[in-house]
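[Q] Does anyone have a clean C-alpha cell version of this?
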Amino acid sequence: MPVLLGRGNDALNVNPPGGNSQLSVNGSDWLWAVTAIHVFSFLAFFGLSFVARSGEKIFHYLFTVALLVGSITYFSQAADLGFVLINQIDSSPKLALVRQIFWPKYVNWVVSFPTVVTALGLLSGVSWATIIYNIFLSWTWVVAYLVSAFTTSNYKWGFYAFGTVSWLLLAFNTFTAGSSAKRVGVSRDHTLLSSWINLLWLLYPIAFGLSDGGNRIGVTPGFVFFGVLDVLLIPVLAFAFIFLARRWDYGQLNLAFTRYGRVHQGGHFPEKATATEPAVTA
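[A] Here you go.
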C-alpha cells in the first residue's frame, strides 16, 4: 500500500508502537502486502458476483464480506492501530515482558471462520442447525483465544484449552459431514476443501501458542505466521470454491435461491415463469 501511495512506509512514525515486543517496519511492510492481497481479492470477487448466474451467488456473497473485513483488519494492523499493551507472564529470555496484542486479528477471525464454516456447510448439505452449531463453535474458539491473549497470568492457558476444544469439535463436525456431501454428489470436492481448511486450522493453535499465547516469538514473526494462514484460508480458499463451483448442481445442493429464499428442488416460482401465460377465462 505505501508503494501505491508513492511514499515509504511511515506508519510506525505516524502511529508509534508501544511495549518492548512490538511491530517492526518489516512487519508493517508484510502486513501491507497481506492487505493488498485481501483488497485485490475483494475487488475481484465483487466483480465476479455481477457475472455469476442469478441464484448462484451465495459463495460470492460470503467470501466478499470476509475479504472486505480482512482488508479492513489488516489495514489497521499494518498502520499499527488497534493494539493493547499486555504484560506477559510467559516470556523467553530474549523477549521483553510487554507485548503488543492486536485485537483486529480476532475481529477478522470472528468473520472469516464462520464464513468458512457456512460455505462448507452449504456445500455438504448439512442442516441449518448444524451450520449454526458450527458457527457458534468457531466464535467460541476465537473469543476464548482473545481472552487468553489478554490474560496476564497463567490462567490464560485455561482459556486456550477451552478454545482448542472448540476447534476440535468444529474439526470433527466438518469431517463427519462427508456422508452428507456424498448424498448430494460433491464428496470429492468437499473432502478436498475440508481437508485444506482443517490443515490450516491445525496450525492456528500452534501459531497462537507461540505468539500471543506463549510469547515465544515476536510480534512480527507472529504476524508472518498468521498472515500466511489467513491468506491461504480466505483469499485462496475463496477462489478454490468459485473454481470448483462451476461443476456443482445448485439444485441438488438445495442452494437454489429465489426471491422467496432458499428452496428445495421443484416448485413453481413466478420469476421463472414465461412472460406470456394463457389467460384464465371466467
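[Q] Thanks! Anything notable?
[A] The radius of gyration is 22 Å.
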